[in-house]
Design goal:
With about 220 residues, the protein is α/β, with parallel strands linked by helices. The protein has 2 domains: about 140 residues, Rossmann fold, CATH 3.40.50.1000; about 60 residues, DNA polymerase, domain 1 (Orthogonal Bundle). The protein contains 8 helices and 8 strands, in the order ββαααβαβαβαβαβαβ. α2 crosses α3. The longest helix has 18 residues.
Length: about 220
């Protein structure tokens, strides 16, 4: 039986790709760089915003200076528009409410920057009391480093064998493996099922409701 369920955010709980794409494209256009189609961003996200900006920039322009220039424009724009089109995936609100009613602990472990992670979780899931909501924090290695998971385990005092990690990407499956906890890949997110399968997760699910059987 699982006592704690740790969720990735983007591509797992929320479909945020449209707002992310719009915000990065805004910054790129302002700086005179080419923009990208929304679908392309599904393969740029997952490793934090600095890696997102690096991937979005033209190959010869991927300097630290340009990444910081994109960030300077992206953050205030995304803060105003991060909820324009982002929505929970089908079945997610019901899943979280059921887990809450069963007394399960829940947490969020994201590579989105901390303030953005907190804002989205508070807006879309105000009734859910998460044990921890962690995004990418200064001085803490991003996923797939297990640091973010270990911080959650310390807060909740939960043994690794009683934890289920749910995510939509290879990075998430690596994070679970590196943390020595049970992994569950979801097929409704940003990455294809083949990417999940390459990391041999313990489970793969196609609907949110299937997660209930795993806990």
């Amino acid at each position: 039986m699982k006592e704690l369920i740790i969720f990735d955010l983007d591509g797992t709980l929320l479909n945020t790709i449209a707002d992310l794409a719009q915000s990065v494209n805004y910054a790129l256009e302002r700086l005179g760089f080419p923009t990208h189609k929304e679908a392309a961003y599904s393969f740029m996200v997952g490793n934090g915003i600095y890696k997102l900006f690096e991937r979005a920039l033209p190959e010869k322009e991927r300097t630290e200076e340009n990444i910081l220039r994109v960030r300077e424009l992206f953050i205030p724009f995304y803060s105003r528009h991060s909820m324009d089109k982002s929505r929970p995936y089908p079945g997610i609100p019901e899943l979280l409410e059921t887990l809450r009613s069963q007394g399960k602990l829940m947490a969020v472990a994201s590579n989105k920057y901390q303030a953005g992670t907190e804002e989205l979780v508070a807006h879309y899931f105000p009734e859910i009391e998460f044990a921890a909501v962690f995004g990418q924090r200064e001085g803490i290695a991003p996923k797939p480093d297990p640091a973010i998971v270990y911080d959650i385990l310390r807060i909740t005092a939960t043994p690794q064998g009683n934890v289920l990690y749910v995510g939509d990407s290879g990075v998430d499956m690596q994070t679970a493996n590196n943390s020595h906890i049970t992994s569950c890949g979801v097929t409704w997110g940003f990455r294809p099922r083949t990417e999940l399968e390459a990391f041999r997760p313990n489970h793969i699910v196609d609907t949110a409701n299937e997660i209930l059987a795993l806990v």
